Amino acid sequence: MRWTIGPITACAVALGMGAAVADEPADDCAQTVNWTIRHEGCTALIERGGLIGAALARAYDARCQASNALLHPDEAIADCETALSLDPGLASALHHRGDAYALLLERERAVADYDAAIALDPTSAAAFVSRGEAYAHMGIYDRAIDDFEAALRLDPGNAAARRNRAIAQNE
Question: Fewest beta carbons less than 10 Å away: which of 7, 16, 37, 160?
Fold first, then answer.
């Protein structure tokens, strides 16, 4: 039987955490099929201890993303802020915190986080799509279209960018 490990486990192993994290909570924290399982796995991983620095930041960021998917934006914001305190350059934590602000209808704050995420990682099609969605909800359709087109340049098969661009072009 061949065993595989999830991306967070692989990250932790690469950072020298070894077998201390090569188990079920790490794999649960890394998966994106079931957000409840991801949230529980990340919580177990964080509470167990043993992760430090960037690996711990990624666990908080993964739980932030799960909290957003479970519609718990306040919890998501707290986790993303913890992740950013551990790794200020973690673009995905800025993106996910922006998603939490968008859920709270705080679109200006969401755009500010998306701007920062894109500045750190200009190759993130998902961040462009999220910022475009925020702009569209704010009625700023020209910027929304620009962001959807940027996402499509990075990821030509991005269905959300294509669909949202079409909607924004009709507004």
Answer: 16
CA torsion angle for 51, 55, 61, 62 (degrees, to 10)?
Answer: -80
Interval 100-140: pLDDT, tens: 999 999 999 999 999 999 999 999 999 999 999 999 999 99
Residues recorded for the chain = 171
Checking 11-19 for CB contacts under 8 A at 24+ apart, the result is 11/54, 11/55, 11/58, 12/51, 12/55, 15/53, 15/54, 15/55, 17/50, 17/51, 17/55
CB 8 within 8 A of CB 30: yes
